[in-house]
Amino acid sequence: MKTDRAAATRRAWLETMERFRFDPDVPASEAIWSPRLECCSRDELRSIQEQKLAALVPFLYENSTFYRRRFELLGLIPTDLRTVADLQRRWPVVTKDEMTQDVSAAPPYGTYTTVTNEVWRDNGWMMFTTSGSTGAPRIFRYTQNDRRLFTWAAARAMHAFGIRRTDTLLLCSGFGPHVFAWIAQHALTHMRVAWIPGGGLDASARAILVQRHRPTVLCCTPSYALHLARVMQDLGFDPAAQGVRLVFVAGEPALGVPQTRARIESLWNARMVEFYGCTEAAAHGGYSCPVGTRSEGPVFAHLSEDSQIWETVRPDDYAPTGPDERGLTVVTNLNSEGSPQLRFLVGDYTTLDAGACECGRTHVRAMGSFVGRADDLINVRGVKFFPADIERAVRSIPGVGDEYEIVLATDDGGMDVMTVRIEHSEHAHAAALIERLQAEIRTRVEIRATAEVLVPGTLPRTEFKARRIRDARRKT
Ligand SMILES: [Zn+2]
């Protein structure tokens, strides 16, 4: 009986999603992929959101132990959450900590997902993990339905950037278990835009690809856009003269940091656009439009409101913010079978504005775009990790003292670099420790760091709470 309800609510959710899949394959207009979904009135948008919500809530209740338990703890039943106002009034935000605890209690997938082993076997697509997660990584198994839904959502966002059939894109990313590169390449294929895979190559090889094959769109992190431009200059090529017209970035605050943006746009003689999302909520969400990326005027990103519900909350008590008040982003993801979250705290600071945009879209705008997350994640070149991950690497090596320090800096090329300073204990061989620690960090957080081994007693001793991080990065 329970299984019947689980399957029936899953089917009903999918049918609702299909009902609103307007313009699935090709753009309905040159400027806007789906005007029916991107330019409708705010009331119509709200109605679409609430019809999807009405299908999503029972689907979650019947298919996710984590959500079922939360309903029970709150004394609610699915029909208590019919509207966005109900959600805000009755459903406290879901945090990463809650999800991590859930994974620790029910490894390896947790119970916040609706994907069972049976669903995975029958209809699985790809498994992703959150980048740089702590002890218990949060894993997301996405289905074939997700592939279709994400591909379409990302294609619409990339159409809003101005990417067209006549472009060629260079994707400067490997294909690890991070969702972004995969979603970008699926969307490009859907849009029938040609692209060059730049995975597994160093910056010199990528620079030569740019110079030889003249991609019109570069896709990478903002740090990497700076780094690649410097490498091109070192090789004697002017990045501004290569014909790149769009630099499409993700993974780090970009448009929200005006000096970085200005430097990237001037080095490449190109407009910068950005994509914003998180693995927990279907990896799509925020997208640039031509108006929000003008060199004059305010910078902002739209948030895809026909497929998600976006709001901001206060950082101290997670209460909804007032109009024009800056807060942390929260998403209700209506658009995923594998990770359909209700009020997940993404946690980036921004200010939402529901006023109309000159581009014609009515999707809410994150003014000033995004400048950073509230929690203590360290972000180096788009790779995010916790100090505890470094601590684990340090602690896994025999012959290392108790103290360590993470120093973040900006090198001459504008690239973020990390040094981890440790002390050797007596008789340990410094060169061997350096090699070992660098390898450990690379394995654990997928980033190249420099290790520095000091004589015992050099680093300040921890007295109460350790201050492990020294962030000396240039605020460009
Ligand atoms: Zn716009």
Explain this structure to me?
By secondary structure, the chain is α/β, with parallel strands linked by helices. It folds into two domains: 1-374, 3-Layer(aba) Sandwich (Rossmann fold); 383-472, ANL, C-terminal domain (GMP Synthetase, Chain A, domain 3, 2-Layer Sandwich), CATH 3.30.300. Helix content is 36%, strand content 21%. The chain is built from 14 helices and 19 strands. It has helices spanning 2-19, 35-38, 42-63, 65-74, 84-90, 96-105, 117-123, 144-161, 179-191, 203-213, 222-234, 258-268, 387-395, 430-445; strands at 124-129, 139-143, 168-171, 194-197, 217-220, 246-249, 271-276, 286-287, 300-303, 308-313, 327-333, 344-353, 365-367, 378-380, 383-385, 400-410, 416-424, 450-454, 469-472. The strands form four sheets. Strands 4-3-5-6-7-8-9-13-12-11-10 form an eleven-stranded mixed beta sheet. Strands 18-17-16-19 form a four-stranded mixed beta sheet. Strands 1-2 form a two-stranded antiparallel sheet. α1 (2-19) packs antiparallel against α3, α8 crosses α9 (179-191) and α11 runs parallel beside α12. The longest helix has 22 residues, at 42-63. The protein is globular. The mean pLDDT is 90. It binds zinc ion. The site of zinc ion has 7 residues, from loops.
